[in-house]
Amino acid sequence: MLLIKCPFCGARTETEFIYGGPVGQDRPDPATCSDEVWLDYLLNVPNPVGPVEERWWHARGCGVWFTHWRNTLTHEITEGPDG
Fold first, then answer.
1. Global pTM value
2. Which residue ranges form the domains of the chain, and what is each CATH number?
3. Region of 32 on the Ramachandran plot (φ > 0 left; ψ -120 to 50 alpha; else beta)
4. Which residues contact 57 (CB under 8 A, 6 or more apart)?
5. How deeply is 12 buried, as exposed, middle or buried, from its count of CB atoms within 10 A (0-12, 13-18, 19+)?
6. What is the pLDDT of residues 26-52, one digit of tens each?
7. Which residue(s) pair with 51 in the sheet?
């Protein structure tokens, strides 16, 4: 079980959180982009190896959105990309 540290509530189990995706992945405007760009955004989810800055929502807690760094190989949560 992954323990995620909420900045307000402290460490909680992953069941209280909803993954919001990697930081920096901009959502294209479906009304102005091409079908190819929109489909690429929807279907090709980035899956980097190593430290990734991620967004998480404490949905079953305080309701805050926050970011943290997680190593996708070890699932270790760190303060930054270098640990």
1. 0.76
2. 3-78 (3.30.2270.10)
3. alpha
4. 17, 18, 20, 63, 64, 65
5. middle
6. 889 999 999 999 999 889 877 889 999
7. 71
